[in-house]
Every structure is written in structure tokens, then in C-alpha cells.
Amino acid sequence: MTDFRMFFRQTGGPEVIERETIAPTDPARGQVRIRQTVVGLNFIDIYQRSGLYPLDLPSGMGTEAAGVIEAIGDGVEDFKVGNRVAYAGGPVGAYATVRTLDAGLLVALPDGVSDETAAAAMLKGCTAAYLAGPCARVEPGQTVLVHAAAGGVGSILVEWLTAIGATVIAHAGTAEKAAHARKLGAAHALDCPMDQLAGEVRALTGGDGVATVFDGIGKASWQASLGAVARRGLIASYGNASGAVPPVELLALMRAGSIFVTRPTSADYMPTTADRRDLAARLFEKIAAGDVSILIGQRFSLADAARAQQAMAARETTGSTILTP
Hints:
By secondary structure, the protein is an alpha/beta fold. It contains ten helices and 16 strands.
């Protein structure tokens, strides 16, 4: 098979994505070369391609994949040729059949986690791990709201939060997606319009609102999040699926109940090799325990990356989406 990557020369819609033949590169000191078997699709790929998150152009695409090590550079002691590995984050360029990366970006895959599961879960699962843990510090008995609860991060969050004893109110764009969130463990699953959501949440919580809102939607859900959060609660706005949240007046946070807002990113919650491997270990433990199930709702070929991104942007996907070379 001829090796290739998907990239773009200018920002825009899915139509700017191109395919380019590449040659494998020898790993330098501290690096390994991976024969990639599965690539993960994430909303950040769309943000970068559209220009919302600017990159130097031309640019590769993607930040998550799994595969097998086929070459190792000097100084690499944690891995050997033939090891199954995965990564999430680091430099863009995961939309490729083969890739050379610093070994410190990789995590070893346990026998019980397939390449498909790893590529579908690494970025989204580690995101759920830091959102529920060091970011929001959710405790048993708290009530929380999860937007886009049938999506990649949202579906993992619903299960993760339920497993630690939180009461989850899930919101999704359709009745079918809401029903899926209920199957994942959500105590309440809603599919009402955004302008009704805060009222529904208040009714379910005796007027109090929720301790934390996990919001990966952005612009379209901001007012609903603001209206649903409890006094001194937290909005963790971790994505922009509908566009960026508009400028926020601090007085609006006061009027909402002296609430807290954070815009977390994986770069700050897993900046080191130790951080990445710790969050991945937590994820793999949740998968092994049956607390988190990774739904792969869609599969596309890597060459069809444009079509895959189009489906995700249109909110036509459920769970995780993977690309295969």
C-alpha cells in the first residue's frame, strides 16, 4: 500500500482536505515510527481545518491514533518494535498511514484494549477523565448536566459520572440520542430545545440547578448552561461544536449565582508524559471494569476524511467515529 496523509493548504469547509503520498521517515533519537491502524476523529480536527483554531499552513490533520511500532530511534527504552501503542494530543498529523513521533507522547495498550477502542477513546476518554476529575472534581451525590450526551465525549462522561455516583441529567439533539444517553446510565435524558433546557433542569432539581455543566456545544448552549447551573456552580465549556461562546460579561456570572466558568484544554491537563499516561491508565481501568463502554458509531476510510468531518459537524454521528487506512 502506498503511504499517504490527509492535509489542507487553506482553511475552509471539508472540500479543502487533500490527499498526499508520503514516505516513512527514520525515527531520530527519542522517537518511534508507528504503522497506524486506526485514526480517531474529533471536533478539534474541524476547528483547525475551519480556522477557528489557527495552524501554520499547509497543515496535517488529526491528533489521535493507534497502531504498531515498526522502528525505534536511539534512547527509547519504554517501547520495542511490535508494541501496540496509542496517542492523543501532540503535533497535528494523525490522518496518515505511518507516522514518526516522540516516544513520550505514546501510551502502551493493554491486551484488553483493541486498536479501534484506543483510537476511538484516547482523546475523548482522557478528556472525560480530566473533566470529571481534576477539572470539576465531581463528587458522589452531586447532580450534573451533560450536553451532547450521545456524542464522543458526552457518552463517555455520562457513564464515567454515573460510575462515581453523580446524578446525570443528559441532553441530546434528538429523542433517539437522548434514549441512548439514558441507556448509558443518565438519570434523566432530555431532548428539548435549548431555550427550554434550563427550565427543565430547574424542574428536575427542585429549582436549585446543577453543580456542574459539561458543555461541549459552545455558542448555541451557553445561555442554557448559564440558566441551568446552581449558585456557585461550575460551567466547564470544553468545546465549540456550534461555534465559540460569545464574549461573557462578568456581571452575568454574578447574576447567575456567583458561578465559575472554565475553558479547559488537554494541553493544560496532560502536558507531560506522566500526565498523559496517568489519565490513560484511569481510562483503561474504567473500560476494564465495565464502567465505560466505547461506542464506535461510525467508520470511514481515511481517504474519506472530508465526508466523516461533514457528518460530525452536522451532528449526524453517535458515539465515536474512526478512520481506517
